[in-house]
Amino acid sequence: MRIALENFTKTFGDTAVIENMNLEIASGEMLALLGPSGCGKSTTLFAVCGIHRMDGGRLLFGDKDVTSVPSQNRNVGVVFQNYALYPHMNIYENIAFPLKIRKDNKKTIDEKVQEIAELVHIPELLDRKPIQLSGGQQQRVALARALVREPDVLLLDEPLANLDAKLRLEMRSEIRRIQQKTGITAILVTHDQVEAMSMCDRIAIMDKGQIVQLSTPKDMYENPASEFVAGFMGNPP
Ligand code: ADP
Ligand code: MG
Fold it and tell me: 16 burial class (0-12, 13-18, 19+ CB within 10 angstroms)?
């Protein structure tokens, strides 16, 4: 589904952290929000999922204005850097949780959990508890839980930050594979330009609450609009 922020503004106290941001993500696209720590990436993501109220502007899911729709009534899937799995539940129950909340029947839940567990390659782990899983496996569970109810948009906030270098490489291509297989619209927040370039269709570079350039990875690398972008993309003049 197409997602659009129009003139999005967010203030904390008297400080405007984001001012009049416009951003559109095409249906089925994976877009990176890339920028240094503190530039407003997570704030933008929190507005899309509804954790934060917007102080100005509109948010559209398809043609629907969801600006005032509370978080729990938005159909979004979220993965944070700490996977936030429910420790007392087994993996099956973790993945099934969003479906139980919306009161799907048991047969539907069984089928959907099985299907998504196969998609993320963890069908043999459904009886385990989160603590018995590796970091990469836990992240697959978090992805499964985010995707199981077929959300309008998948939001990933630094999902690879807690993984060691080898797993990070593996999960980069795994997340991209799963995103393409499901055709879901996705936003990846990261401060790592290699991650953004290798995983996403387009990159929005942010600096101090503004999008300073939005383009494909190749174009961004070859034609940076400013020294800031060039430096950030690792291709300074
Ligand atoms: P990023 O995810 O790009 O590292 P954030 O979106 O978390 O950045 O933060 C953007 C700016 O907003 C930072 O200056 C941060 O200190 C500020 N900020 C974020 N959340 C809050 C909050 N709850 N209260 C006050 N300031 C905040
Ligand atoms: Mg952040």
Answer: middle
All residues at 6 or more sequence positions from 14 whose CB lies less than 8 Å from its CB, including other chains: none
Instruction: Quickly tell me which residue has 């994976």 as its tokens.
Output: 30
Half-sphere exposure of 57 (CA within 13 A, CB side): 22
Can you list the residues of the chain whose pLDDT is less than 50? none
Complex ipTM more than 0.85, yes or no: yes
First to last CA, the chain: 38
Q: For a ligand 1 pocket test, name from 12, 15, 210 the mutation site with the most ligand atoms within 8 angstroms of its C-beta.
A: 12
Three-state DSSP state, 153: strand
Triad 147, 150, 152: Cα angle to 5°: 105
pTM for the whole structure: 0.95
Other Cβ atoms within 10 Å of 177 Cβ, number: 13
CA of 157 to the centre of ligand 2 (A): 7
Model pLDDT, residue 80: 85
Rg (CA), the chain: 18
* Nearest atom in ligand 1 to 52's CA: 23
Could you tell me if the CB of 86 is within 6 A of ligand 1?
no
CA distance 66 to 61: 7
